[in-house]
Amino acid sequence: MERQQRWERRTPQERTDVIVQMEALISAARGVQLEAIAAHDTVGSWRDDGAAHMTGWLVATVGIEHRTASDLVEVATKLTELPRVASVLGEGQISWDQVKPICRFATPDTDEAVAAAVPGRSAAELRAIARRARTVSAGEAAEAKQRRSLRMWWDHHDNMLHLSGRLPHEQGAVVEHALERLAASAPKNPDSGFFDPYEWRMADAIIEMASMSLTADGDADRATINVVVDADTLFTGVGPTEIVNGPVVSTDTARRLICDGRIELVAQRQDGQPIGIGRASRRIPPWLTRAMRRRDQGCRFPGCGRTRWTNGHHIAQWVRDQGPTNLDNLITLCEYHHRIVHEGQWTLHGDPNGEVRFHRPDGTTYQPQPPRLQHDIRQRLLDPHLPTLIDTN
Prior knowledge:
Layout: H1 2-8, H2 12-43, H3 54-62, H4 66-79, H5 83-90, H6 96-105, H7 111-117, H8 123-132, H9 138-146, E1 149-155, E2 160-166, H10 169-184, H11 198-216, E3 227-229, H12 231-236, E4 241-243, H13 251-259, H14 286-296, E5 310-314, E6 330-334, H15 335-343, E7 347-350, E8 356-359, E9 365-366, H16 375-381
Helix pairs in contact: 2-4, 2-5, 3-4, 5-7, 6-8, 10-11
């Protein structure tokens, strides 16, 4: 509160100077960071920490989102070809939000001209320029198809599934048209007598498309929505109920799914953990695989988190260490990290139901975490010799 009051006593110009200059400082620092990222990526130093690529290394080491890390690597690589634009960023004349679209249309031949013209353009203007400058060749269209993606993740606080993806233009147009037709055909809400908001109807359209697909799927295992619930909970209405790899749901929802869906019963211990199959087999049965993935929510290697093309890994190896095929001995790893554990001399120890520690081939523990701001750097930010910039007295 006292610090806030000190700022409020400053003149508007002094506060403006701090805001503007700090943004310039952030841009300059970003420029230095991008140079280091490009060098780290070129040399391949991320391999030393078991990462599959530079983006994954940034996610684990700095604690940022995958999308942010991907943007950093992409821009860092591009700026190696744009020294003048990199210089303008390093001088704090343009922001991170400006340099991202610049890197989509600037070329080594236009580097000088773009660097001179962009400082006065807004980020929105630069995004529009980048969009208009985009031309699509046959080769790029083929490459775009290889870049199609759809990500899904649960916000367990709000019990909402989030979707994020991208499709090539012609495929995107098909999905857009199908969803819009379904949304347009939705009837009025019987409770209000009015049509639901357009965004609601578009969400309902996705659900309708998915439901139609599951209905037509003859494979019982793939078309099953798995619900984990104690038998007592179904009768009393008190207790946890979850959709596997999804959110907590109400008991009424569980009853509805059981009434009008495909269910699978899994034996559980008193602590709630499914029973395994011991030494009977190294093959992980589908029901145990689902329980493992539900618990792990993707590859457990720090910074990875891949949820597709994953494998179950025996921590105590089935053959060498007589490790059982039980949930207490299984962990989810993507194909890359499964390979470096088996073939790259990485090891892991711990309880898969709690903390698991990964160790490099030299035996050192890999425990990445975002670093704290170094004390000397913070002191420089609070330098009393910069009274119009950062003086909190």
